[in-house]
């Protein structure tokens, strides 16, 4: 029997859950998304997305109207007779670097106590290797009705800011199962996406997620490490990266040096894999090094500026870009969050501009920061400028803007936005990451 339109439920409406739910509806499945936050559910039922993600709201509205997409806090009605339930709740980092599995456990228990028919449980959240086994045992222990449950791992590889696009154009779908039936069901659920499917066992699927993210984090830290060396020996990291990129074994992506990676994934997943290793008595030295380098890299420009200036006290500092990358309003682990408190503590007046991150920043940083609605406003009369995110609005500024608007045109660019020569010609004292004037 072939089920093309399945009844799917999704637990958790964060980036992973919401995007998965909406995209499953878009390809024809009947989807119910569950969250404990009533306000958020009401908002989504009225067609408003709680996160800023290109194309998402449009698809939400379309599928709500088509009756294929539902949002509810009533998990019982959503789980009871679902063909499959996707778990997309958070696994936040704990102080020791391990992943907090409380939310997964809560959902697993709710599922166990609610199911009235056989069901496939799919873990989409990023979870330490072995968690799917635990989830399966946990659900079986708490099952109330006599139903059959299978648990599968299906990690998510979407990046924030391009989540919808990434879902429909994923490089691969990873399916980790321990039985043929679960594998078949997931293949059917994903069939309408027409994407390559890689089928492995559950533990390998869990590992693929960490291995992929940590490899990318390692790649960035490697380039940052090299950038620091380039500065010392007079090489240019961008030329080096370009030269490397022609080798298909290296690839052209994720070779950009900067002020370090942030976000909700790389910082958390590197620490979680190191933690997993130490639990097994092993030191994952490559990843530990990447984490250390990233920590230092976030303050690279601050350290440079500290050496150049007598004091920050009383200086007007323009901060351009607050989010951990462009295209998102997320500030988790963003370099700006490390730097701004240091500047404030040293008596600087911080004027910050970000096209979408201001609201989130207000929740995380003291009131002392002044937020501006344009980069020009932040730059006017400034003594120093730090650039932390390569937003288009910031890239579009011409070098002469810094020269004209700033009191003293001293710019520290953590994303290598401008050509050195152009800044030089405009009369801007300009520092970036790992580059030399040619
Ligand atoms: C990342 C991965 O790219 C996704 O494949 C993965 O699914 C996701 O984590 C996840 O686990 O959910 P994301 O954190 O949204 O996605 O953002 P990225 O675009 O990967 O950027 C992460 C950080 O690396 C940013 O701070 C960015 O500025 C930095 N970066 C990226 C660099 O410093 N240099 C580069 O060359 C590329």
Can you describe this structure in just a few lines?
The protein is α/β, with parallel strands linked by helices and 438 residues long. It has 19 helices and 14 strands.
Write the layout of secondary structure elements.
Elements: E1 7-11, H1 15-26, E2 30-34, H2 38-45, H3 56-65, E3 69-72, H4 75-79, E4 84-87, H5 102-114, E5 119-123, H6 131-142, E6 149-153, H7 163-168, E7 173-176, H8 180-190, E8 197-200, H9 202-233, H10 237-245, H11 266-279, H12 285-297, H13 300-308, E9 316-320, H14 335-345, E10 349-353, H15 358-364, E11 370-372, H16 375-379, E12 384-387, H17 392-395, H18 399-405, E13 410-413, H19 420-425, E14 429-431
Parallel strand pairs: 1-2, 1-4, 2-3, 4-5, 5-6, 7-8, 9-10, 9-12, 10-11, 12-13, 13-14
Helix pairs in contact: 1-3, 5-6, 9-11, 9-12, 11-12
Uridine-5'-diphosphate-glucuronic acid binds at residues 126, 156-160, 213, 216, 220, 254-256, 258, 261-263, 265-266, 324-325.
Pathway: Nucleotide-sugar biosynthesis; UDP-alpha-D-glucuronate biosynthesis; UDP-alpha-D-glucuronate from UDP-alpha-D-glucose: step 1/1
Pfam families: UDPG_MGDP_dh, UDPG_MGDP_dh_C, UDPG_MGDP_dh_N
Binding site for substrate: 209, 254-258, 262, 325
